[in-house]
């Protein structure tokens, strides 16, 4: 699947930067075009893989390149004001060569959480290609303002995009990790999962052709139900045993011993682990509207029987009759990996928690406003009593 990716804000830019590195390492050619947008000049300067001409600084008239300070209302305002500057960068994207747009943004900060949905609405108005977002939820330890931003941004992204894929930092940070190393590891996890999902079906010249092809249309159809999506992942490192004599070992031309039964069992086990293990957004998988599974690895370790068994198991587990599946041959890989996309999930405790926080915060804001109005009225009345009339 070929994507035009826009990293909006600090987190979005860093994940996009990592995507480009992954693309180069794997030769997957997922990222057809990359644009980074930010209100902080320093964040844009810190990117390593995004061309300088594709880095867009917005809000200079308002914040002078210093960021919006976790104010996502201000982030939305400057995105509205400077949307033409963002569009100028997007105009250089060969849109006829991409299958969809993907906006990547942290939902807890100010620039990405506020400006990302503004860009999504803009793109949907102009282009016919689907517009998706990859939203990154802040950890609960990051503070109340980030949680409130995430609650607001989440709702707006769901409304303005064709599907919101979510990665919850709260489920991934390890205790004792530094912030820098923790987020670097999280970004690697994000790109590994979504890289396999979007890379499936992209056949390079001379590359292997999948037995059960997963192309961009199947990803699009799975995400077409809208709403919120989560991704599961599981992998197993291969213990490759070669047969043959000393000469074959020296030349590396020995054939690998591959047992079809163990291959089938490995695939079905990985599908189960990927679905019931640590999802990018923890949820109850029952009631999922649509699903897609992708098995990646050396072709000899992939087979149709295992994929069909895995697909049938996902159908039973989710209750969905729209479960697609296929393989993604990667000869150089030393492991077999399963990626499971669950689209249109509804029973998500973290989202319910965010929504409750938003409701309580709004009530507190309303109470503060009422209290401020009462105090102002009282102050005016007290002053009226104390002041002598002029005439």
From TrEMBL:
InterPro entries per UniProt: CetZ (IPR032907), CetZ_C (IPR048737), FtsZ/CetZ (IPR045061), Tubulin/FtsZ-like_C (IPR037103), Tubulin/FtsZ_GTPase_sf (IPR036525), Tubulin_CS (IPR017975), Tubulin_FtsZ_GTPase (IPR003008)
Subcellular location as annotated: Cytoplasm
Tubulin/FtsZ GTPase domain sequence ranges: 2-206
GO cellular component, one term: cytoplasm
Annotated GTP binding sites: 10-14, 110-112, 142, 169, 187
PROSITE patterns: TUBULIN (PS00227)
Keyword check for Transferase: no
Subcellular location, principal: cytoplasm
GO BP annotation list: cell division; microtubule-based process; regulation of cell shape
UniProtKB keywords: Cell cycle, Cell division, Cell shape, Cytoplasm, GTP-binding, Nucleotide-binding
GO molecular function: GTP binding; GTPase activity
Protein's UniProt keywords contain Cell cycle: yes
Purpose: Involved in cell shape control.
Family designation: Belongs to the CetZ family.
Full protein name: Tubulin-like protein CetZ
């Amino acid at each position: 699947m070929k994507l035009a990716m826009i990293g909006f804000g600090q987190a979005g830019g860093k994940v996009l930067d990592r995507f480009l590195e992954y693309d180069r390492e794997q030769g997957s050619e997922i990222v057809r075009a990359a644009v980074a947008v930010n209100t902080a000049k320093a964040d844009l300067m810190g990117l390593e893989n995004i061309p300088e001409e594709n880095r867009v600084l917005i809000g200079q008239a308002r914040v002078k390149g210093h960021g919006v300070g976790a104010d996502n209302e201000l982030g939305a305002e400057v995105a509205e004001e400077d949307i033409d500057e963002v569009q100028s960068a997007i105009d250089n994207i060969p849109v006829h060569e991409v299958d969809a747009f993907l906006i990547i943004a942290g939902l807890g900060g100010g620039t990405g959480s506020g400006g990302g949905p503004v860009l999504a609405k803009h793109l949907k108005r102009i282009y016919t290609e689907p517009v998706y977002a990859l939203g990154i939820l802040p950890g609960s330890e990051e503070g109340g303002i980030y949680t409130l931003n995430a609650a607001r941004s989440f709702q707006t992204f769901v409304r303005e995009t064709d599907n919101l894929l979510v990665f919850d930092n709260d489920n991934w940070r390890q205790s004792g990790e530094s912030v820098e190393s923790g987020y670097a590891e999280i970004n690697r996890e994000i790109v590994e999962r979504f890289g396999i999902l979007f890379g499936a079906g992209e056949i390079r010249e001379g590359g292997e052709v999948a037995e059960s092809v997963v192309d961009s249309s199947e990803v699009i159809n799975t995400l077409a139900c809208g709403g919120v999506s989560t991704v599961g992942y599981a992998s197993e490192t291969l213990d490759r045993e070669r047969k043959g004599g000393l000469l074959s070992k020296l030349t590396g031309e020995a054939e690998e011993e591959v047992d079809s039964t163990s291959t089938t069992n490995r695939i079905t086990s990985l599908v189960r682990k990927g679905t019931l293990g640590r999802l990018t957004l923890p949820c109850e998988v029952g009631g999922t509207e649509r699903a897609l599974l992708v098995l990646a690895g050396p072709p000899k370790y992939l087979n149709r029987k295992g994929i069909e068994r895995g697909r049938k198991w996902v159908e039973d587990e989710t209750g969905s009759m729209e479960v697609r599946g296929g393989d993604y041959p990667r000869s150089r890989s030393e492991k077999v990996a399963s990626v499971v996309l669950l689209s249109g999930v509804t029973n998500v405790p973290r989202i319910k928690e965010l929504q409750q926080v938003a409701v309580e915060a709004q009530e507190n804001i309303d109470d503060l406003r009422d209290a401020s109005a009462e105090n102002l009225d009282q102050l005016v009345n007290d002053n009226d009593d104390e002041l002598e009339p002029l005439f």
